[in-house]
Amino acid sequence: MSEKRSILVTGGAGYLGSIMVPELLARGYKVCVLDNFMFKQNSLAACCADPDFSIINGDARDKTLVADLLKKTDMVIPLAALVGAPICAKDPIGATSTNLDAQMDLYGNLSTDQWVLVPITNSGYGIGEAGKFCTEDSPLRPVSLYGQHKVQVEARALERENTISFRLATVFGMAPRMRIDLLVNDFVYRALHDRAVVLFEGHFKRNYIHVRDVARAFIHGMDHFETMRGGPYNVGLSSANLSKRELCERINKHLPSFVYTEAEIGEDPDKRDYIVSNDKIEKTGFQPKYSLDDGISDLIKGFTMIRNSRYGNI
Question: Fewest Cβ atoms nearer than 10 Å: which of 164, 190, 204, 245?
Answer without folding.
Answer: 245
